[in-house]
Design a protein that fits this description.
With 246 residues, the protein is of the alpha/beta class. The protein has a single domain, classed as 3-Layer(aba) Sandwich (Rossmann fold), CATH 3.40.50.300. It is 43% helix and 10% strand. The protein contains 10 helices and 5 strands. A 5-stranded parallel beta sheet has the order 2-3-1-4-5, with helices on both faces. Strand 2, helix 2 (39-44) and strand 3 (51-54) form a beta-alpha-beta unit. Helix 4 crosses helix 5, helix 5 (124-143) packs parallel to helix 10 and helix 7 runs antiparallel to helix 8 (175-187). The longest helix is centred in the middle third of the chain and has 20 residues, at 124-143. It is globular, with a radius of gyration of 18 Å.
Length: 246
């Protein structure tokens, strides 16, 4: 018998492509996909069918969450040592442009940095920059040794190739999977057009104020915004190979 694919956990900073990446697994027939479930549901799920999850909601029932994550990593790994982790990262300036809606709403993106309240009176772009830097330094740092790192930019540039790389790495290359990922890839677009379909859980944070997703910061951020934000993200951005002027 063919071995079933492993369970999957998709992680990353908000507005970095976690939702549309997660919905890839909503398309793949082999998986049962849940977006932002309570962590208890991840721990107590029936894994008789392969499961995929995106960024569980904060929980301390099974222990304190690891810094930068919304759940205790050790508890999850003890429960499912076969869990495959993915971390998706996006250029900080594009992520900051997209984070503004949620961060403006009482820091609505989670997990929050532990010092978030000390930043509440700082300019919005600085709050967004701090959120991105913390998640991608502390959060990614928790899983760097076990997670596959992927980028928003690679997903947008070649969605079908991206999807094939993900599903192929999980041992899936059947006809049903190939058809499913083609349908998913067809909706992943850099600009809004008839084929583009916004990820369902992203729609509340989306604004029609940009023509492109890669490089949107050029339309949304002023030179003053960039000057305020870049020093906050610069060190972490460099670790991912991102420059101030992509």
């Amino acid at each position: 018998m063919t071995r079933p694919p492993p369970p999957v956990m998709i992680l990353g900073c908000g507005r970095s492509g976690t939702s549309i990446f997660g919905e890839l697994f909503q398309h793949v027939p082999a998986y049962d996909y849940r977006s932002e479930p309570p962590f208890e549901d991840v721990m107590e799920a029936d894994y008789g069918r392969p499961r995929a999850f995106k960024v569980p909601r904060d929980s301390d029932r099974y222990g304190a969450p690891a810094p930068g994550l919304s759940f205790p990593l050790a508890a999850l790994r003890a429960r499912r040592p076969d869990m495959r982790f993915f971390w998706i990262v996006r250029h900080p300036l594009d992520a900051i442009a997209s984070l503004r809606v949620g961060i403006a709403q009482d820091w609505g993106h989670h997990p929050r940095p532990p010092d978030w309240q000390a930043w509440r009176d700082r300019p919005l772009v600085e709050r967004c920059a701090h959120h991105w830097a913390f998640l991608n330094a502390s959060g990614y740092g928790q899983v760097a040794g076990i997670a596959r790192l992927v980028t928003f930019e690679a997903m947008i540039a070649d969605p079908l190739g991206f999807a094939r790389g993900i599903t192929g790495g999980l041992g899936l290359d059947d006809a049903g999977t190939r058809a499913a990922i083609a349908a998913w890839a067809d909706r992943v677009q850099d600009s809004s057009n008839a084929r583009f379909v916004e990820a369902e859980t992203s729609r509340g944070y989306s604004r029609p104020d940009h023509s492109r997703r890669v490089g949107r910061w050029r339309e949304n951020l002023t030179a003053e915004d960039v000057a305020c934000a870049w020093p906050i993200v610069a060190a972490t951005a460099a670790r991912f190979g991102y420059a101030r002027q992509p």
